[in-house]
Specification:
binds magnesium ion, 40% helix, alpha/beta, 7-stranded mixed beta sheet, binds guanosine-5'-diphosphate, globular, Spore Coat Polysaccharide Biosynthesis Protein SpsA, Chain A
C-alpha cells in the first residue's frame, strides 16, 4: 500500500447501540494497523443513544470523531456529512453495523490507488451470502437490474455498503449527489458514468454474524421509494440538475 496515502472511513449508524462495543473494537484495531486512517462515525437521530455511546467509547481513540446530527436524513446524507471538509487522499464508507468486516479496508485502499472509485461487490465474494431472506434477495436483484437498465450502468452489485473514492472524485460526486436514501449508491454510479470516473470492484464478503433482523430496510415502502428515486435520477439528469459540464 502507498504508505503516504491518508484515508477517512465514514460509518453511518442509526439505532445500533447494541453494536457499539463490537464495532469500536474493530475501529481501534483498524487505526492500530493503519496510522493514516481517520474514522468518522455519523449518527443522525438515533433514539437509543447510539451516537453518545460511540462518543464515550471512542474518546481515547485519537483518530476517531463522532458526529451526532439532530435529525434523521438517511444513510446517504449521513455519509455525505461524514465526508464534508475531508482533506484525506481516500474517502471510504462502510455499513456501520460492519456487515463487511474491517479487513476489507486494506483491499479497498489498495484498489483506490488504481481507480477513482471502488465498490464492494457481494457477487465476487468467495462464499455465498447466507441469511438473506428470499424476498429481500429477489427485490434486491430486481432493483439492481432495473437501475442498471434505466441508468445505463452495469454492475452485478450496486448496493453493498462498502465503497471508496479518491478525494477529487468524491468532491465531484458528492457536490452533485442529491439522493439521501437507499438509491444513493446507484445515483453515485450513474454520476461516475456521466463524469467519466473509473470504477473498480472488490469482493465484499458479508460477515457470518451480520443479521437482517435489525435491518432498516422495509421491503414494501423502501422498494417503492427506491423505484421512485430511479425515475427522479432520470428526471434530474434530463433537467440538467446535475451540472455535469461544470
Ligand atoms: N446514519 C444513518 N445510518 C443509516 C441509516 N439507514 C441505514 N443506515 C446504516 O446503514 C447500514 C446498513 O443498514 P441496514 O439496515 O443494516 O441494511 P442491510 O444490512 O442492507 O439490511 C447500517 O449500519 C445502518 O446504521 C440512516 O438513516 N442514517
Ligand atoms: Mg445491515
Amino acid at each position: 500500500m502507498n504508505s503516504f496515502a491518508t484515508a477517512r472511513l465514514v460509518l453511518p449508524v442509526c439505532n445500533e447501540r447494541h453494536l457499539v462495543e463490537e464495532v469500536s473494537q474493530s475501529l481501534e484495531e483498524a487505526c492500530r494497523r493503519d496510522p493514516g486512517l481517520r474514522v468518522v462515525v455519523v449518527d443522525d437521530g438515533s433514539r437509543d443513544g447510539t451516537g453518545e455511546a460511540f462518543k464515550q467509547r471512542l474518546t481515547s481513540l485519537k483518530n476517531a470523531e463522532v458526529k451526532i446530527l439532530p435529525k434523521n436524513g438517511g444513510k446517504g446524507a449521513a455519509v455525505r456529512h461524514g465526508f464534508e471538509g475531508a482533506t484525506e487522499d481516500q474517502l471510504m464508507f462502510m455499513d456501520g453495523d460492519l456487515a463487511y468486516s474491517i479487513d476489507h479496508l486494506a483491499t479497498l485502499r489498495r484498489a483506490l490507488e488504481q481507480h477513482d472509485v471502488v465498490i464492494g461487490s457481494r457477487s465476487m465474494a468467495p462464499q455465498a451470502q447466507g441469511g438473506l431472506p428470499a424476498r429481500r434477495a429477489f427485490l434486491g436483484w430486481g432493483f439492481n437490474r432495473l437501475a442498471c437498465f434505466l441508468l445505463g450502468i452495469n454492475y452485478p452489485d450496486t448496493q453493498a455498503g462498502l465503497k471508496g473514492f479518491q478525494r477529487k472524485a468524491a468532491q465531484r460526486l458528492f457536490t452533485r449527489q442529491r439522493l439521501a436514501d437507499f438509491a444513493f449508491d446507484v445515483e453515485l454510479l450513474y454520476l461516475c458514468r456521466k463524469l467519466g470516473l473509473g470504477v473498480g470492484q472488490i469482493p465484499a464478503q458479508v460477515s457470518s454474524r451480520h443479521t437482517y433482523k435489525t435491518s432498516r430496510v422495509k421491503l414494501c415502502c423502501d422498494s417503492f421509494r427506491a423505484l421512485k428515486d430511479l425515475f427522479l435520477i432520470r428526471w434530474w439528469a434530463w433537467m440538467g440538475a446535475y451540472r455535469l459540464h461544470e
